[in-house]
Structure formats: structure tokens, C-alpha cells
Design brief:
The structure is a single chain. By secondary structure, this protein is mostly beta strands. The chain has helices spanning 307-314, 410-415; strands at residues 4-11, 17-18, 23-32, 36-38, 40-51, 62-74, 77-79, 82-91, 100-102, 105-116, 124-132, 148-158, 162-172, 176-178, 182-192, 200-211, 215-227, 235-243, 258-268, 273-282, 324-325, 328-331, 366-367, 373-377, 385-388. The protein is elongated. Residues 290-315, 334-360, 378-405 and 416-425 have low confidence and may be disordered.
Amino acid sequence: MGRVQLFEVRLSHGRVVYSPGEPLAGAVRVRLAAPLPFRAIRVTCTGSCKVSSKANDTAWVVEEGYFNSALSLADKGSLPAGEHSFPFQFLLPATAPTSFEGPFGKIVHQVRATIDTPRFSKDHQCSRVFYILSPLNLNSIPDIEQPNVASTTKKFSYKLVKTGSVVLTASTDLRGYVVGQVLRLQADIENQSGKDTSPVVASLLQKVSYKAKRWIYDVRTIAEVEGAGVKAWRRAQWQEQILVPALPQSALPGCSLIHVDYYLQVSLKTPEAIVTLPVFIGNIAVNHVPLSPRPGQGLVVPSAPPQEEAEAVAGGPHFFSDPVSLSTKSHSQQQQPPAALGSVPGAPEPHPQDGSPAPHPLPPPLCISTGATVPYFAEGSGGPVPTTSTLILPPEYSSWGYPYEAPPSYEQSCSGVDPGLTPGS
């Protein structure tokens, strides 16, 4: 063993997660078996974003720096044998973005210490990664408490000469959710044809956009629910719910190289019909009671088919106007125990009894990874809790580089424009 037996960076109180604008304090610890001459002992605190054009590659093609502060802990001299501690403190900038890790890039913050030794001697380095959480308050997003509604009508031909249409309408109770909250969805399907539809599928999608030499899109299916199909000349209603798993927050303010978006996609394979609803994943839950749609908002769901379709229907079998309830065939998520719902974010807080003090609210959770193993921080101090999430399914494409067309932006979904992607939407 060499002269340096221990060289490490320790953060005060063992903290792992910090907020922008907060002081970060700690100490550099050194234990020597013999005296060590040095030219300087320095510590730096840095934050940066790095993006690669290949998955899981450290050959970064684009980098973006957020802060780089340095302190000199000791000038030229010699450290005697034994243990030494050099305290330090940095002030994190108020604009520092939330930490993030993905297959094509990451936002990383760390403290690095260096012992600069005399010429022909090996320098000694060590580092400690810490995480920054800039909480996304969902209440700051306009109309976040309003239901999310979108509709599409698909005309198609069957049996060579017959035509029909399907009206697919999807809605959610809110437009934003936090980890552990239940997303309640409803799909209304109006089958104005003599052909049964395929099963209805609802998917919670995550789209991460990376700005390398060109935009790279990583689209993943987070959770998926499948319901039954709709019989000919029938109206049906399907209600389900998805428990939001540990996920990085929507958007990454302060970072221009990585963007995170989420969508709820409700679709039919036959006939092909897709409705996409943008949703936000935040850290602070919506504190308003869900309201009914305001007058003039949302999409108008047709109460009757167009005239030519009405004539076709009139000449065919009787159309049943009363909707039937569809059953769920499969759900990618495991059943959660009812007792757990009382402790998840967004659930009603228990009222203190017998005069006992109210429990202290937990800090917002932090999830930084898009992978199947999620570094999840439920509190602001202590170490990460790596939770293997069975809710995140493999990507829906075989090539990492440039997958299929991503879901539309929020503005495009609301305006009814064809699903296209604008980078960083």
C-alpha cells in the first residue's frame, strides 16, 4: 500500500440531494502512512450536461456547463503521516438543472478533489457525485387541474363495398401527476360500422429528446393497459387507471440539450385510430379539486355521424346508442396494496388524532434515470434507493439511433395538427 491510505470527499450529514441556490458543505479527508509533499490541494464543484450520438457511449459529442467553482485547500508544503481533514463550502447556483441519466446523455453534478504532487510524482484525485432537484410544481402549469380530452374519427372500408367510421375519444382526470399518483383514464368508442374493432390499448409513453449533432429521440412504453374490442354498431366506454411509477420530471429547466416529455396514447389497431394526450410528471402535486371542462374548452365530441354516414347506418342494422362497459384484458402493472395508496404523493393526508402533531411532509421525490433500475430518492438526505421497476417495458423499436416518429407536442395535440415532433417540445 502506498503513502495515501485514504483520500475521499465527504458531504456534510451524508446528504445526497440538494436544491438550486443551496450551500453545499463537506470535507476532503486524507490518511497517510508516510509524509507526502505536495504543490497544492484543490477542490472543485462542477455541473454539466453531456450528450452522445450512441447509446451507453462516453464519447460525448456535445457538452454544456452550468457551474465550475474551485477552492484551494492548502498551498505548497508537506502533509505529515496521519489523518487530515480540509473543510469546504460552495453555493450552488439558483439556475442549476435537475440531475438526469439516460442512454444518450446525462446531467451530472460532482465535487472533485486533487492533490497536486511534485514533478514525476502521480497526482491523486477523488470525486463525489451529488444530485440536484429543482422541483416542478404542477400548480404553476396553466389549467393543469382541468381534464385532458382529445378525439379522432377514422373512416374506413370493409367487405369491399361497405364503409363505416369509428369515433375514439380519450380523456384523463388531470393534466399532471406526481410519482405514486393514480392516472385515471376513460376511452369512449363509437363503432359506426358492421365490423368489430380490435382491442383498445392505452400506453403511458416517455419521450426523451437529446440534442447531439442532430436530435435523437428515445421513446419508451412506461405502462400499458389493454381493453376489449367494440362490437359492430355499438358504443362502449372503457375506464382504467395507471399508477405513475418512479420517473424523471417533465422538462429540465436550465438544460438545452435534454428534454423529457410524457404522453398517454390510446389506440385501436383495426381500424387504425390513435389519440395522444400530453401529460406532465412533476414533484409537487396538483392541489386543486379536478374541475369540469370550462365552456368552450376541449374538443367537441360528435353526437351523431355525418349525413352520409347516418344514411349508411340507417340502411343497416340498428345502432345501439346506450354505451356498454368494456373489460380490461391485461395490465402491465402489478396490483398495489390498497394500504399503500394512503401514503403516496397526491393521496389525502391522514388527520392527526388525540391531539397528536401533524406528520411532517416528505420532500418531493427525485428520480434521475430512465432505465429499468431507477435511482429513486424519497427524501432529501441519505443514500439512493435503487428500485428495480417492473413497470418500465423495453423500447418499442430495435434501433437506438433514430426510432419511429415520436408523439406530437402539446400545442400540436391541442390544435389538431398532424402528429409531428418539434425538438424540445
